[in-house]
């Protein structure tokens, strides 16, 4: 924005060299001298000349050129508050031709944006909508930014769409971000979704855009669409960040795609994209079990340092039971230390009894179940099984 502003001002300053017939020769020579000093970066000396000129009795036209030249020094020093005051005075003097006045107004509207005087910028920008000299798309830029930074997001959306329609092509990414953000701020998720779909197509290497689009689909309860979006992003090697990969896995799990979730997470761990902690371990075990990948689940439970808790030992024992490896199941159950008549104690004793039954050791099965008949959590189940065994 500032570069564009400087271009406008430099062109205007250059025109002052040909304005001798509109001002006194002494004023013209002084301005020419000041300009030469500015080109040599001798701004202090140039400013001294201009300050002295402003103390003299000058007509509106001369004063406007002096002020315009002085404003360029303040721009170089980033003193935009002072530049704004100078432009306000030039506009009030009204000595320049309409085209120059409109250019100054437009530059002033931009300066107001930079110093956060949004209402003034908006008012000035709206006054230029019918200007014959300023491009409408440039005015719509100002209006969009003014409303956006002033947190008037509905108006920002309105002028952002007008601006994009007027420009049609070569629209910078930042303008889409402003439009998307405005839709989010107004909770217009349909508008946000439509905008983000365009952003993903135009800027398809931006990882966060893909994730935001998937998230919007999820909010609209379009889980299949959310999943396909993330699958495409992953296929195109766009998903790289840990949180985004985990989000993809979460969407896979919500869609009951356990096998792919397990494969994806295992790959991410093996490639050191994700460090395996307890949470990752639990997700992997869940994926393997639900995907009926019993061998992978067993391997993970037997090898992980996070599998020492009783609940994981019970899962492992149950997996061996389902694989009809009853002796291994009993060995694991026997390694579990619990308080008598606790919930876990009842679970492990019942599983052990079932293993003995499958091993045709009915006597040991009954004996084991007799330890559970008084367990407050499992006594009903234990008694029912005992009744069947004794019948």
Overview of this protein structure:
The longest helix is centred in the N-terminal third of the chain and has 17 residues, at 60-76. 74% of the residues lie in helices and 0% in strands. It is rod-shaped, with a radius of gyration of 38 Å. Helix 2 packs antiparallel against helix 3 (43-55) and helix 2 (25-39) runs parallel beside helix 4 (60-76). The model is unreliable at 1-21 (pLDDT under 50). It is built from 22 helices and no strands. The termini are far apart. By secondary structure, the chain is mostly helical.
List the helices and strands and how they pair.
Elements: H1 2-15, H2 25-39, H3 43-55, H4 60-76, H5 80-93, H6 98-114, H7 118-127, H8 136-149, H9 153-167, H10 173-185, H11 189-202, H12 207-219, H13 223-235, H14 242-254, H15 258-270, H16 278-290, H17 294-303, H18 310-322, H19 326-334, H20 343-358, H21 362-369, H22 379-390
């Amino acid at each position: 924005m500032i570069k564009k502003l400087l271009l406008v001002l430099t062109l205007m300053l250059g025109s002052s060299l040909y304005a001798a017939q509109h001002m006194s020769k002494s004023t013209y020579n002084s301005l020419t001298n000041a300009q030469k000093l500015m080109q040599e970066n001798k701004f202090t000396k140039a400013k001294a000349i201009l300050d002295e000129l402003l103390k003299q009795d000058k007509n509106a036209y001369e004063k406007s050129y002096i002020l315009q030249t002085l404003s360029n020094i303040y721009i170089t020093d980033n003193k935009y508050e002072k530049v704004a005051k100078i432009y306000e005075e030039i506009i009030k003097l009204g000595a320049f031709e309409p085209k120059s006045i409109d250019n100054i107004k437009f530059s002033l509207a931009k300066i107001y944006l930079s110093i956060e005087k949004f209402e003034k910028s908006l008012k000035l920008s709206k006054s230029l909508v019918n200007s014959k000299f300023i491009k409408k798309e440039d005015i719509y830029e100002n209006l969009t930014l003014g409303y956006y930074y002033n947190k008037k997001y509905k108006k920002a959306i309105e002028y952002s769409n007008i601006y994009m329609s007027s420009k049609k092509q070569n629209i910078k990414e930042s303008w889409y971000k402003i439009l998307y953000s405005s839709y989010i701020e107004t909770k217009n998720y349909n508008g946000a979704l439509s905008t983000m779909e365009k952003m993903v197509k135009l800027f398809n290497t931006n990882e966060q855009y893909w994730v935001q689009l998937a998230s919007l689909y999820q909010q609209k309860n379009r889980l299949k669409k959310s999943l396909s979006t993330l699958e495409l992003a992953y296929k195109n090697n766009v998903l790289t960040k840990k949180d985004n990969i985990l989000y993809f896995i979460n969407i896979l799990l919500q869609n009951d795609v356990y096998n792919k979730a397990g494969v994806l997470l295992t790959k991410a761990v093996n490639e050191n994209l994700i460090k395996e902690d307890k949470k990752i371990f639990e997700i992997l075990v869940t994926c393997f079990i639900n995907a009926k990948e019993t061998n992978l689940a067993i391997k993970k439970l037997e090898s992980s340092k996070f599998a020492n808790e009783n609940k994981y030992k019970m899962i492992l024992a149950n997996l061996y039971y389902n694989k009809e490896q009853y002796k291994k199941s009993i060995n694991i159950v026997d390694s579990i230390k619990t308080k008598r008549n606790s919930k876990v104690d009842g679970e492990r004793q019942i599983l052990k009894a079932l293993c003995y039954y499958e091993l045709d050791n009915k006597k040991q099965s009954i004996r084991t179940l007799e330890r559970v008949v008084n367990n407050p959590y499992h006594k009903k189940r234990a008694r029912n099984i005992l009744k069947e065994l004794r019948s």
